[in-house]
Design goal:
Strand content of chain B: 25-35%
CATH class of chain B: Alpha Beta
Largest sheet of chain B: 3 strands, antiparallel
Number of domains of chain B: 1
CATH architecture of chain B: 2-Layer Sandwich
Number of strands of chain B: 3
Strand order of the largest sheet of chain A: 1-3-2
CATH topology of chain B: Translation Initiation Factor IF3
Largest sheet of chain A: 3 strands, mixed
Oligomer: heterodimer
Number of strands of chain A: 3
CATH superfamily of chain B: Hypothetical protein apc22750. Chain B
Number of helices of chain A: 10
Radius of gyration of chain B: 20 Å
Distance between the termini of chain B: 72 Å
Distance between the termini of chain A: 91 Å
Strand content of chain A: 5-15%
Helix content of chain A: 55-70%
Structural class of chain B: alpha+beta
Shape of chain B: elongated
Radius of gyration of chain A: 25 Å
Order of helices and strands of chain A: HHHEEEHHHHHHH
Chain lengths: 279, 150
Amino acid sequence: MNYTPKLPGHNHNVTPVSPLRELLVLLGGLLAVIAIVYLLLGLGADLLVSHISPATEQKMAAVFSSRFSPHNRPTPREKWLQSIINSMQEKGCVDLPYPITVQVADSKVINAVALPGGRIMVFRGLLNIVRSENEMAFILGHELGHFENRDHLRGLGRGLVFAFISTLTGSSDGSIARLVARMAQVTESGFSRGQEEAADAFGLRMMNCVYGHVGGATDFFIHMPKKLDPGHIGHYFASHPENKKRIQALLVLQQKMGYQSGPLTPLPVWHKDSEQKKN
Amino acid sequence: MPDLILILSLTALGYFAGSWAENRHYRSIREREKQLLHIPAITMKDIPYPDGEIRSSHLVEGSAVISIDYFKRLLAGLRNIFGGTIISYESLLDRARREALLRMKESAPDAAVIVNVRIETSAIGKYSAKRNIGCIEALAYGTAIELNKQ
């Protein structure tokens, strides 16, 4: 047998495709799939929400109650917050199919959340920067707005969809899971902006109903510490430009509805004391 | 946001540094393949020379370990979702195999022929913590035949 040494000509083992093109095609495809799945399942969750009865919601809330178990005795702060909510309900400003309870969570986070089962969780970090009862009433009214619009359940539904997508893609590679998480977050924040605006409008209505004016509604956004990292704060302060837009939207709404400004109700005396003790 | 910046910069680094290293490696491979063309490496077990002519025969081997870069891994990860040919790994394996063969030939510069050549591939760091290190090893081995000087 005769051996003829020969250099390989064309390399058949390597596909001559630009890796950048491959990246664009794959990433585009992935984005499209995620967007479609997210939209479809999200829509499904939204449709389901309108069929969840208050009783079912209470059952769902059991999942959370193990994590955020209520105290046996409410603290003075909680009693104060509860009294604001109660006055809103007693004056007939809001009619929800279940009682609303407020609870303070010991965390520096500046946020408040509406949880299934009629529970509002206010974080200590938020209480520490509130300067008047009116500001607090706006925040509580905002959360009641979420209950009224059933956003808290919608959020859960979308959260589940989000977790589902993350699990699907997370199994393949850590960096892709992170990429997907970021992409979904951007979609989510765009989606929830409308809900936040609706809840803001509801909060304003609550203030007007309880106090007869809406003074102090925008104060909270204004004296919010500017140095705070947007990554660690909740849905009240997505970003500073976002804040300005929200203040503007509130002022426009105030004018449109003919709401008046009025004197602020000061915080209870003990509020300042407990704040100093905590710090 | 910081994690996104990290992913993007690592991907860009992987793409530019990876392409640069790959092009440089391929240039070196092509050049050395030309230089070592006179040593045939064949898969046959038969020795194409009579016993009297053979001075020695011994095992020769060459191995090369090539690492995956961040960009290639991202591409492969995306391919894992959709299925299909993972083209980003093709050049890695090709380079590893050719480099291993070249090193095998370089370890037997006086050989007339290397017979019974085999190539094996294995993954390294597959089960390392977090699976952040990923590379492959190609090992080429065969029997080098040296002939009596005439």
